[in-house]
Automatic annotation (TrEMBL):
Residues 609-618 have a biased composition (Basic and acidic residues). It comes from Danionella cerebrum. It comes from the Eukaryota. Adenosyl-L-methionine (AdoMet)-dependent tRNA (uracil-O(2)-)-methyltransferase. This is tRNA (uracil-O(2)-)-methyltransferase.
Length: 618
């Protein structure tokens, strides 16, 4: 079988990069795989040498095989001045745990790196896929899918990767640990702790957070097992998880035999389900001499928010360099406030990862970076195990640490203060008070650090006075209905559009100040009132329910299923009450009540108000 796909603007470099993705990370395409490991046998310079090497690897005569039929076909086109070179490697394909989990799938990888072939491929601008005939093809449905899968799934992927040429800012996943060991252990732990999904008492998504923490625990357990082998010991590492949140990571590590504890400023409901064997402590954490752990092996910062930049510092200030650290950054914090971007050539996430790496380096660590397999966009971890300096240089390095922290502290003391009531980050994390405060519990390390409040208020505009919200909604809606770009059909005024910045200019200063104290401010208030408004790309529109039916995306135009029966007629229709032309829908088609007589009590169960999902979990 031979399939060919023409592509444009494909360089030799990008083509080989695309092939390398398939060779090194087959799980990206084949979801039944956990990954692959590769061992290289080096390069050979001619076909006879390649023949001899393959025969020894495969323990059979390969002269008449399909491989050499293809090789000999290209060998005849060799140019006299071409540099012949074959790169040979063996990869072991690692399936996810199934009935075939214990089987070893090994493949010989051959790359032809001749100059003439590079020229020919660049000119043809093609990606071709050659396989054995259907009669010779072996398929187990796991490591080796059906023959049709190669050209329906693999070939299009290879061509797309060749065209994109997108080099990742980060390393490949699981680059610091054995993938095979990780895959086996992850499947075991996933089954072992699957029951927690059914009893999860938090408001966060149980499947996401349970399996994410299972994956993080798996990574640490494999990393630590490899460390014990390296150090020649059977003693399991101890740990402290700062800002442990829901405590599930601590629960798993304790359950798997590692002594340690988790500390968080706020107790979670799920802590009660773990039992006494899980060591969790409710306490405010401040970076000072009271939070050193001289008998602990590892310090963990798993989505540790305002503590993230302090993790390498706390680890570095231990006695006899005993403490290593693992940190999985999420929200962007500096030592005593929100991290301020310094350049625009990188993504914000990449820049922040580099910032934490810089702190680790200043603290004296050799810092390693890896990418976890978790259901999150923030999955790059940093690990510091060894120091770059000798023990007698500790005083000098400590002076460098202190100067660096004071320099970062000066960025906040010289700028305006920011209070914990000011705003939330996009993912919901709170940025706390950054102003200088000599009475801070962390005054011996830095001024200005404040741990998050034990009880955090809900600030998504739902607690604003109802009359204030109604006044804002009415003023904005009436302005849209009377703008010069308002659209009127035969019967109904659709209103115009305004940028949110212009909408803000309609409001008085006290109202604007009240909105600034809420997450998202004016935009959140408008989105909350989606019955009246449609907010897209920074513009505000009047919602036309004739095209935006109940339950439909704001960008959709087609009809969709109506809302649940219990959600009908539980609120008054704003358009029926306030719009000059009334509601564009007849009463029987509108989800909202046209007058008090149509109002019905809501059947939706009331839930206890919690702060954002991120802070509840982590």
């Amino acid at each position: 079988m031979s399939k060919l796909l023409e592509i444009d603007k494909c360089s030799v470099k990008t083509l080989y990069s695309a092939v390398d993705v398939w060779i090194k990370k087959p799980h990206v395409v084949n979801k039944r795989l956990a990954g692959a490991t590769q061992s290289s046998f080096g390069a050979v310079s001619d076909t006879p040498e390649l023949h001899q090497l393959l025969s020894s690897l495969l323990k059979t005569d390969v002269e008449n095989s399909g491989i050499f039929q293809f090789i000999h076909a290209s060998d005849g086109k060799r140019e006299d001045d071409a540099l012949g070179l074959w790169s040979v490697a063996v990869r072991t394909i690692i399936p996810k745990v199934t009935q075939t989990a214990e089987r070893k799938f090994k493949e010989v990888i051959i790359k032809e790196l001749r100059l003439y072939l590079m020229k020919r491929m660049a000119l043809e601008k093609t990606v071709s896929l050659h396989a054995l005939s259907p009669e010779q093809w072996f398929s187990d449905g796991v490591a080796y899918p059906k023959l049709s899968w190669l050209y329906s799934e693999l070939l299009p992927k290879l061509s797309r990767w060749a065209l994109e040429d997108k080099a990742s800012d980060f390393k490949s996943t699981l680059s610091l640990i054995p993938v095979e060991k990780y895959s086996l252990l992850y499947q075991q732990l996933k089954e072992k702790y699957r029951h927690l999904v059914k009893v999860w008492p938090e408001v966060t998504d149980p499947e996401k957070f349970v399996f994410e923490d299972v994956a993080i625990a798996t990574y640490l357990l494999v990393l630590w097992a490899e460390e014990r082998i390296e150090n020649g010991t059977n003693v399991k590492q101890s740990f402290v998880d700062l800002g442990c949140g829901n405590g599930l990571l601590v629960h798993i590590l304790n359950n798997e035999g590692h002594p340690g504890k988790g500390i968080d400023i706020r107790r979670r409901r799920i802590w009660d389900l773990y039992g006494p064997a899980t060591n969790l402590e409710e306490s405010a954490i401040t970076p000072n001499n009271g939070f050193l752990f001289p008998t602990t092996d590892w310090l963990i910062g798993n989505h540790s928010d305002e503590l993230t930049p302090w993790i390498p510092v706390i680890a570095a200030r231990q006695i006899f360099f005993l403490l290593s650290f693992f940190v999985l950054p999420c929200c962007f914090f500096d030592f005593c406030g929100k991290y301020q971007r310094r350049q625009c050539l990188k993504s914000q996430y990449k820049e922040y990862i580099d910032f934490i790496t810089e702190i680790s380096s200043v603290c004296g660590f050799h810092t390693e970076e890896d990418c976890l397999r978790i259901p999150s966009t923030k999955r790059v971890c940093l690990i510091g195990k060894t120091r770059r300096y000798k023990q007698n240089e500790e005083a000098l390095v400590e002076e460098q640490r202190s100067n660096y922290i004071r320099g970062r502290e000066g960025l906040f003391s010289s700028s305006r203060t920011c209070t914990s009531a000011e705003k939330l980050d996009q993912d919901g994390s709170v940025f706390h008070n950054c102003e200088q405060n000599p009475s801070s519990a962390a005054k011996d390390w830095v001024n200005g650090f404040h741990p998050r409040e034990k009880t955090e208020s809900v600030r998504n505009c739902v607690s604003l006075p109802r009359d204030l919200v109604e006044a804002v909604v009415f003023k904005v809606a009436m302005t849209l209905l009377n703008t010069e770009n308002s659209q009127c059909d035969d019967t109904w005024n659709k209103g115009g559009s305004m940028m949110i910045g212009d909408v803000a200019s309609l409001l008085d200063q006290p109202t604007l100040q009240a909105l600034k104290n809420e997450c998202g401010g004016l935009q959140t208030l408008l989105r909350n009132n989606h019955q009246v408004f449609r907010v897209e790309g920074g513009w505000v529109f009047i919602r036309d329910w004739r095209t935006n039916a109940p339950g439909q995306s704001s960008r959709g135009t087609s009809k969709c299923k109506p809302p649940p029966l219990g959600a009908l007629k539980t609120r008054l229709c704003w358009f029926h009450t306030h719009h000059p032309n009334g509601c564009p829908l007849p009463s029987q088609e509108c989800a909202f009540a046209h007058g008090e007589t149509e109002l019905r009590p809501s059947t939706k169960p009331r839930k206890k108000l919690e702060h954002d999902q991120h802070n509840v979990s982590h």
